Amino acid sequence: PDGTKLVTGAWDGTVRAWNSQTGAEERVVAVASPIAGLALDGTGRVALNAYQRVEVWRLGDSARVFQSAPGGGSNTNQAIAFTRDGGAIDYHASYGNPVYRWDLARNVTVSLDDPTLARLRELSPDFHDALSTDRQRALIAERGAAVLREMPSGNELDRFSTAGLESLALAPDGKGFAVGEHNGRITWIEGGRRRELRPWGDVAVTALTF
């Protein structure tokens, strides 16, 4: 939360903690499984998607403190988050599977019935999208464009046309969004205002967030 550390998970099966000011590597945790996604809870715990399971590790002493049963995760799953109270983990396996909640204390996993996400799946068949904090707007990658839509009606609110869409991000309030392209351009759109940035030249922009 204070921005002093960055934690990364890699396909080589390692979680690494870095000093965000100096770039120094401060800790390596050997998970021994490809890591598709991870989340931090602000207390030194990291939840991650390893192959066919979800795990929680403590960064301070490199100890694994929770592990789901086999099949409880997916190596293609990149969406994972702690609940606000830190007592459970929500994660989403790719390609249309539902959102799951894993209660850490009881070691029980349940499927969450979420009509908003079900509607988003209908509007976003390619699974490339972002949802506003209040769940009233969604930014969806469609053929040749990033489209801002109202939820749950699906009405179009704004559109940015591009043949090179690589990544997208929606502001928490749903009013602005950004699009990264494979030619290195980032465009920030908010109402009638548009700003453009090319920080690296001709290099694909693969991830964006507000």
Tell me the overall shape: globular
> Largest sheet, order of strands side by side?
4-5-6-7
Number of strand elements: 19
Low-confidence stretches: none
- End-to-end distance, in Å? 14 Å
Mean pLDDT: 88
- In quaternary terms, these chains amount to single chain
Look at the helices and sheets and give the structural class. Answer: mainly beta
Q: What can be said about the biggest beta sheet?
A: 4 strands, antiparallel
Helical content stands at under 10%
Number of helices: 1
Strand and helix order = EEEEEEEEEEEHEEEEEEEE
Portion in beta strands: over 45%
Return Rg in Å.
18 Å
What does this structure look like?
There is one protein chain. This protein is mostly beta strands and 210 residues long. Helix content is 4%, strand content 48%. It has a four-stranded antiparallel sheet, with no helix packed on it. A four-stranded antiparallel sheet has the order 8-9-10-11, with no helix packed on it.
Produce a short descriptive summary:
This protein has 210 residues and is mainly β. It has one helix spanning 115-123, and strands at 5-9, 14-19, 25-30, 37-40, 45-50, 53-58, 63-67, 79-82, 88-92, 99-103, 108-112, 129-131, 137-142, 145-150, 156-161, 165-170, 176-181, 186-190, 193-197.
Topology:
Blueprint: E1 5-9, E2 14-19, E3 25-30, E4 37-40, E5 45-50, E6 53-58, E7 63-67, E8 79-82, E9 88-92, E10 99-103, E11 108-112, H1 115-123, E12 129-131, E13 137-142, E14 145-150, E15 156-161, E16 165-170, E17 176-181, E18 186-190, E19 193-197
Antiparallel strand pairs: 1-2, 2-3, 4-5, 5-6, 6-7, 8-9, 9-10, 10-11, 12-13, 13-14, 14-15, 16-17, 17-18, 18-19
